[in-house]
């Protein structure tokens, strides 16, 4: 596991808000990031294309997939692969 971003949590023995490292267990989707940028798309632009095609995959989820903070669910993988015109296996070899 790797240490990802910090989240603030309440701790009764410390100050009300304490920064605690949040562990992530997912590999980053580096192929998704590479293909998206090669096609000249931002995360927001990809999200708009996904929403226009009937799939609700917001840019915050795309960011999470690329960074490894979120595991892309099967429907999201299929939708992203379809919009980027790639096979799901080629686009998400990490999953």
Descriptive labels:
95 residues, alpha+beta, two-stranded antiparallel sheet, 5 helices, globular, disordered N terminus
Tally the helices: what do you get?
5
**Cα-based radius of gyration, to the nearest Å:** 16 Å
User: What is the SS-derived class?
Assistant: alpha+beta
- The mean pLDDT is 82
Spans with pLDDT under 50 lasting ≥5 residues? 1-8
Q: What's the count of strands?
A: 2
Order of helices and strands: EEHHHHH
Q: Describe the largest sheet.
A: 2 strands, antiparallel
**Which percent bin holds the helix content?**
40-55%
Shape: globular
Tell me the fraction of residues in β-strands, as a range. Answer: 15-25%
Strand order of the largest sheet: 1-2
Tell me the span between the first and last alpha carbons.
Answer: 15 Å
Tell me what the structure shows:
The protein has 95 residues and is an alpha+beta fold. 19% of the residues are buried. A two-stranded antiparallel ribbon has the order 1-2. The protein contains 5 helices and 2 strands. Helix 2 packs across helix 3. Strand 1 and strand 2 form a beta hairpin. It is globular, with a radius of gyration of 16 Å. 44% of the residues lie in helices and 16% in strands. It starts with a strand and ends with a helix. The longest helix is centred in the middle third of the chain and has 10 residues, at 43-52. The protein has helices spanning 30-38, 43-52, 59-67, 74-83, 88-91, and strands at residues 2-9, 18-24.
């Amino acid at each position: 596991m790797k240490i990802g971003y910090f989240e603030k949590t309440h701790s009764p023995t410390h100050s009300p808000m304490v920064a605690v490292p949040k562990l992530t267990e997912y590999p980053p989707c580096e192929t998704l990031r590479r293909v998206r940028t090669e096609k000249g798309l931002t995360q927001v632009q990809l999200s708009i294309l996904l929403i226009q095609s009937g799939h609700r995959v917001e840019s915050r989820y795309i960011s999470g997939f690329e960074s490894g903070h979120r595991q892309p669910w099967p429907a999201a993988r299929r939708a992203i692969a379809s919009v980027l015109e790639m096979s799901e296996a080629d686009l998400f070899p990490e999953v």
